[in-house]
Amino acid sequence: MRGSSVGLCFLALTIAHVTEIQARLVRNHVSSICSTWGREHFKTFDGDVYQFPGMCEYNLVSDCHDTFPEFSVHMKRNENDGNPTVSYVVVTITDFAFHLSKDVVTVNDLPVKLPHYEAGVQVERNAVYIKLQSKVGIIVMWNLDDAVMVEIDNDYTNRTCGLCGDFNGVPVYNEFLLYGRKISPIEFGNIHKVHRPNDDCEDPYEEEDVSQEAMNVPESCKEFQNTCEEMLHAETWSSCTKLIDPEPYIQACVQDMCGCTNHSDDFCVCSTLSEFSRQCSHAGGEPPNWRTSEFCAKQCPFNMVYEESGSPCVDTCTHQDTSSFCEDHKMDGCFCPPGTVFDDISMRGCIAQSECQCKHGKIYESGEVYRQEREECTCFEGRWACESLSTPSTCAVEEGSHVTTFDGKDFTFHGDCYYTLAKVERKDDASPTFTILVKLVPCAHQEYDTCLKTIKILLNNDRHNVLTFTADGAVKQNMQSISLPYFSGDISIFHASSFHIILQTSFGLQIQIQHVPLMQVYVSLEQSYREKTRGLCGNYNMVLSDDMNTRQGIVEGSAAAFSNSWKASHICQDREDRLDDPCSFSVENEKYANHWCALLRQPNSTFAECHSVVDPEIYYKRCTYASCNCEKSEDCLCAVFSSYTRACASKGVFLTDWRENVCEKYTKNCPASQTFSYKNQRCQLTCSSLSLKQQSCTSDFLPVDGCSCAEGHYLDDNGICVPVAKCPCYHNEVYVKSGKSISTNNERWMPQSVNLVVGVPVASLMMNNCGNKTVHNSFGVITENVPCGSTGTTCSKRVRIQLGRNEIKLSRGRVEEDDLGHGPQIEYKIRNVGLYVVVESEIGMAVMWDRKTAVRILLEPTHSGEVCGLCGNFDGDGQNDYTTQGQLVVSNLLEFANSWKVSSSCPDAEVNIDPCAVTPGRHQWAKLMCSIIIGETFKECHKKVSPFPFYENCVKDSCACDTGGDCECFCTAVAAYAQACNEHDVCIAWRTPEICRE
């Protein structure tokens, strides 16, 4: 259930490069299809074709062998210009009623916009059909005219009732027998009438003469017999007549033409020909394109063309490989001409792939460039071709306890000592070495309310050459206070605003120190420092998995074990990971945190402007944690908000006015003559700095908020902003008022104005190609998700593994194997290992499935960099895992996951749902049950594998499964942590007769 925020359709987990799209072998689906068409014709699942002229609402098919039926399909006909057409179809699945009509689709009486997805049911509309597809195993298609087709899974064999029959595989048997006597189609149909209150619809009457002679084709209609036979026995239909007996359709054709008052009406003949064509496609045949502009013509939108048999999986500009993963059988409809794809970005119809645009926030024409923090990307044929930029990477300590490494790994640690944040012992002969220490201590009386109090920078790792920054904004060099701006050799230090201090060096190190409302630090290093750092900031090798490398060179699994190894003093006590939730100790704090932190996620808040480039979810979690944990809740809340705005600024999105409703007090407390700004990007010089030899600010840094002097003004000794003309001069540490002069060596000096220059560095480029290895074996893993409850959360319920020409399907505890009819032959084995089904292939890929909702994929290193999908690209760089199908690295989880839909017609997920917020009554139960992960049971594993992400997923899953199956969701989540422990050689016997007994 890890993909619960998306979970709309088929989501690709791992997909190798696809070079050619070929059709798969087609199965004959006719035996699981029921249909109605034309002048009251019905075909049952078992193959009977009969006529029933009823105009009431009837049960077409229902699941009749359960106390609580899973589904039902009802329909009603009416007369339209003398021809019977279907007026509406009602599909009920559990508690949801989908009412399909020509004008509107409603769900439980509420109108919805198509395509629509709800409760595992997708409803979509194309140029020909409305199609409803449910994960319970039913597909309903209506051509908005006379024909309805229902296809169901074989699991419903001998379980159905209605006009479609009992689906037992035996024609006539049961359907037209009642208490041992044979009944007519009229009587059979009337039995399945749906009785509504105040419904006065009359049943059709039986003909008085029911002899065989009366049922034969009347003499007056025999003239149409030859016409219908000639059409359906034509050589062009030979592919179909080999698979389907045409005789019932010839008789239906005759009856249609006989019943028409206007024999030139297309309805008289087109309806049955269309049905025979549909049945042929379902049977795996190839019906001819029998329509002409004068005979049964169909109109298509845009520049699409009508085909009798084509793939319903449409390749589009954003999903160019949809057809390569298509399981659906062919059908009639409007399709793009060969060599084109549908433009789903600007809706220009069918275009050549070379004309496709790209979309990310806005539309980019082919050849246009989009630049982000680490890449410069060019739109090319609907995909992005990206070049990596040699930009610095940043490590941060925020809210006193949240650390983000250079490689992007996040962890929480509540320290009480000096710790090595980053240490560089070698780079090159010209650059100095340095060590950055941070002092983390409890803020007040709460053990886990942690504050960053001090930052020390040891140049050349010399304890006698130390720069110290403290939380009150003071700066010292070797314990001596210094005033800012400060320039000395390779280092400059200055105020960017009243909230921020910047340390800039000439050797590729920049440090931003924030001290309002809390002390936070951001250390940026150029790419030349890659693989040359150690400490809490990690080793800067762009690999997340080894960031927790201790001083002794051991990769730890817990934040505490890792961080304790980087204590600067052995006297300090080791700290432990915090396993409880700080919000669980105070209802008031929890309400405060949930109320204010929700601003980060609200779609109409100021922060929403940044949601597409920085996912707010991790900051929301940090916000609730910090707000509940801190003694000064507002300070911690505002610190997280400022952290989010900084992350946005690093992506090129500059948020303003976010302090208007929260954290406003910091904008009102500016010193006299200073003003608050959200976008300070120049150093604040003082009058005293004008006497220094270096009088320019050459640093380039992210815009910061805070108070500062207006441009062209300087801080004097009284902290007042004054124009340069009013700045005093300094001589021998004595200041001289503006306008006064002094004499030195018989020369007179007076203050003069100064020009400032801001320098911007030039970025260098390097190539970064996705999937640049030659892929010899095509493989892929696709998971189909279904709802786990009423909150919209989904579980992986069906897994498709494609290995060359073979496809293995894992679903409902069963394993199926199919021959796709194309591709290389790849050997594989299927084994049962404990609770798992394991599929192992000779190409170095294995899939583990727990027969329920958990899927694990294992790849050998030989596939590094050649895969893509929801599992990332396996290239060793943890910061580019969110690469879309269009080859663009994004920060937003929804944008990333939506791009990997296999079906282009499936609607995008638009909201990342928090199931515990939707079902608050289950939240406490979920936390109680899932506490087994952070409790004594798994204690031996905590130092090897961090339990926090598994605990959070467990709580979320257990909240989500609110319509049954909650224990399955809980057990799967705990089993995932147990499996992770096993992989680190910690075996936990956690199952009991009361908990997840197997």
Automatic annotation (TrEMBL):
It comes from the Eukaryota. CDD domains: TIL. Residues 1-23 form the signal peptide. It is found in: Secreted. The keyword Glycoprotein applies. One of its GO terms (cellular component) is extracellular matrix. InterPro entries: Mucin_vWF_Thrombospondin_sf (IPR050780), Ser_inhib-like_sf (IPR036084), TIL_dom (IPR002919), VWF/SSPO/ZAN-like_Cys-rich_dom (IPR014853), VWF_dom (IPR001007), VWF_type-D (IPR001846). Pfam families: C8, TIL, VWD. Keywords: Disulfide bond, Glycoprotein, Repeat, Secreted, Signal. Residues 32-202, 393-573, 732-907 form the VWFD domain. This is Mucin-2-like. The lineage of its organism: Eukaryota, Metazoa, Chordata, Craniata, Vertebrata.
